[in-house]
Design brief:
- Helix 4 links the parallel strand 11 and strand 12.
- The protein starts with 7 loop residues before the first strand and ends with a helix.
- By secondary structure, it is an alpha/beta fold.
- The chain contains 5 helices and 12 strands.
- The strands form 3 sheets. Strands 1-4-6-5-7-8-11-12 form an 8-stranded mixed sheet, sandwiched between helices.
- It has one domain: Rossmann fold, CATH 3.40.50.1820.
Length: 227
């Protein structure tokens, strides 16, 4: 694995249709072969770019020396605009992709958690700039909100789906049905004893974030020869 020191810098020039998007960049090494984008969970559940799953995902990418962009969706933190039920948020993702293309001109790897996975997959699937996609805790029904995945057949880039086997918002049988809609190449991994947030359960206490992070690293190594 590549070991590298990574600086964190605030990004002040990322703007979407609703205005400025608050963002942080973990800088990568100068010869990085990819850049990475990570999207956060639902704002109504307190989701921000500082979420633990988002942070651990960023660290997995950063461990290979890749630059990693995290940003707050519209209405979150210092980001301008109002929440748009996942529609305008897809435009936020597209604005982030454009910023990364302009600033790095590298193929992009995407990861999103929960709401961020649904919105990000919708925005990134079929985009030629995005060469790999990771859905973490892909939601099916959460807090009265339904999520659909009819767009998945156009996702032909390599895909990793990672969920806890006790995910309350993505039951195993339903998630396996979602996975079936996606074309190859694809991989589905269940983290034993983990809930939606990759935390432990009564039968398997303790956070499972390190296991999630290990699976991301292993997939990046096997699919993209990172190391």
């Amino acid at each position: 694995m590549q070991t590298t020191s990574s600086r964190i810098k605030s990004i002040d020039d990322l703007r979407g249709p609703a205005g400025r998007l608050e963002a942080l960049l973990n800088t990568g090494r100068p010869d990085a072969p990819y850049a990475a984008l990570v999207c956060h969970p639902h704002p109504h559940g307190g989701g921000t770019m500082h979420n633990k799953v988002v942070y651990h995902s960023m660290k997995a990418f950063s461990s290979f020396g890749l630059p990693v962009l995290r940003f707050n969706f519209r209405s979150v933190g210092l980001s301008e605009g109002v929440h748009d039920e996942g529609y305008g948020e897809q435009e936020d993702v597209q604005a982030a992709l454009k910023w990364m293309e302009q600033n790095f001109n590298l193929p992009i790897l995407f990861a999103g958690f929960s709401f961020g996975s649904n919105v990000g997959l919708r925005a990134c699937c079929g985009d030629p700039r995005v060469k790999g996609l990771i859905g973490l805790g892909v939601p099916v029904r959460a807090e009265g909100r339904d999520y659909s995945y009819g767009f998945l057949p156009k996702c032909t880039a390599p895909k990793l789906f990672l969920s806890g086997d006790q995910d309350q918002y993505g039951p195993r049988d339903v998630m396996e049905g979602v996975f079936e809609r996606a074309p190859e190449p694809k991989r589905l991994v269940w983290i034993a004893g983990a809930d939606h947030f990759f935390q432990g359960t009564a039968d398997s206490p303790g956070p499972k974030l390190s296991l999630m992070q290990e699976e991301i690293r292993a997939w990046l190594q096997s699919e993209f020869a990172l190391g």
